[in-house]
Amino acid sequence: PGRMRKESGDHETPDWDDKYRKGFYDGADDAHDLLVEYHHLFTGPTADIAMGSGRDALFLASKGIQVTGLERSWEGLKIARQAAVARGLSIAMVQGDAAGMPFRKGSFRGVIVFYFLLREITRDIAGVLDRGGILMYETFLRAGGDVDHPRNPAFLLDEGELPALFPGFEPIHYHEGIREHKGRKRATAQLVARKT
Fold it and tell me: What's the CA gap between 84 and 125, in Å, rounded?
């Protein structure tokens, strides 16, 4: 495991710069399957919250979508910037913590979030999305057995919780289940919804 550092509050969070420097996310270059399947719903400026090394932002940019990625890790941003340059793509990048959402209300037509969960900011995430805009969210679901997921239960959704975190959204796709990912089982919840 990477080094840990204290954040505001009592919980410890990984040192994301250290994880990126050590290659923890090497090989995670392809866009998530959910985005590949539903990318056609994104038609205007889109925010990638906690974008990591930019795999999904780069995919949307390759489809002609204006993307702004928010990431707290300077190393993640560096990797994303290098990948964008290598592919001849343009992505706006903001270094910051999603817990202090830096975007204006209604400033995006799309928001994507993959494998990041802070329940206390779901209203802020919904707020930056313009009416009629598309939200795509996929993250870990609480599950027993030999399922791969974060150890901290604060980062795991309960069954049926994800759509309840976004009232006022019309679901286009919702799925909970266990699937294989690189030879390991992963319990996830997926939501694609339109803000009404």
Answer: 25
Mean pLDDT of 101-127: 96
Q: In this model, does residue 12 exceed pLDDT 50?
A: no
Q: Is 178 exposed, middle or buried (0-12, 13-18, 19+ CB in 10 A)?
A: middle
Terminal Cα-to-Cα distance of the chain (whole angstroms): 41
Give me 20's structure tokens.
């990126």
* The model scores a pTM over 0.90: no
Which distant-in-sequence residues (6+ apart) come within 8 Å of 168 by Cβ? 126, 195, 196
Closest alpha carbon to 71 in 90, 91, 41? 91
The values of phi and psi at residue 110, to 5°, are -150, 150
What residue has token string 């343009």? 90
Question: CA–CA separation, 28 vs 38, rounded Å?
Answer: 19
Residue 128 identity (one-letter amino acid): V
Q: Which residue has the tokens 């997921």?
A: 149
Sign, Cα dihedral of 179, 180, 185, 186: negative
Phi, psi of 119, rounded to the nearest 5 degrees: -55, -35
